[in-house]
From TrEMBL:
Protein name: ATP-binding cassette domain-containing protein
Pfam families attached to this UniProt entry: ABC_tran
Biased amino acid composition, Basic and acidic residues: 270-283
Domain of life: Bacteria
Keywords from the named record: ATP-binding, Nucleotide-binding, Translocase
UniProt keyword Membrane present: no
PROSITE patterns: ABC_TRANSPORTER_2
GO MF annotations in UniProt: ATP binding
SMART domains linked: AAA
Gene3D superfamilies, sorted: P-loop containing nucleotide triphosphate hydrolases (3.40.50.300)
Annotated stretches, region: Disordered: 263-283
Span of domain ABC transporter: 21-261
Amino acid sequence: MTAMPPVELDNETGDVSVPAMSAVGLTLGFGAKTVLNEVNLAFDARAITALLGPTGSGKTTFLRTLNRMNDKVTGYRHSGDVLLGGTSIFGGRDLMELRRSVGMLFQRPNPFPMSIMDNVVAGVRAHKMVPRKQFRSVAEEKLRLVGLWNAVKDRLGDSPFRLSGGQQQLLCTARALAVNPEVLLLDEPTSSLDPNTTDKIEQLISSLAGRLTVIMVTHDLAQAARIADRTAFFFEGRLVEEGPTAHLFSSPQHEETARYVSRGQLTAENRQRFADHEERVSP
């Protein structure tokens, strides 16, 4: 692979009218059990989409399918397709290259057993993206991006397991961003974090919009309201509805969605956000 200098995140100039990723007639299951049936869902380029739904609704299985994390799970099956840039992620597509394009951040931090700096550049090294002499500059760039540089700049050779849980999650975020993904998948990335770190992660996610496509599973309705441009609601193995977050929360089109979002205690700030959004999009 040809060496390339560290650059800003991809998708700075793409056509946002074309979905960054889409599920087409996607059915997922394990053995005889069908988890999701006939999902058709397109993800806007350079936008944040939240996936909501009760436990067991299939949203995490769906998310993990988008970069083929389920492939080796016993009994896993799928039909239909997932398109990235108009091309199927299945078939002969190189799995390592797919996961460079479609990165993932998990519910709990998962640093590698190597130094802080080596964690950040692990993917850069594996894909031979830059010469070794540029590793430190890549690490600094991404650690600054996630707001962790000042805390670790004098201990880049230390173990990441000496960091706090929130710092570990920021480190894993820097690692995911270092390979310049087109799409970033987030599986409840703040569920185990304190409120201050959650706020930092949310600010970071919001800052990424406009540079890459973010698809995020969350059980926190207020979080979806704060940062998601669009929201999709899953229930009992179906995609019930999808649309702009403000509209889905304030004017759900299906009874299941209305019941689910009514359980969330939306703050006055979020209600004002909805009102402001509707005012902006109204003709």
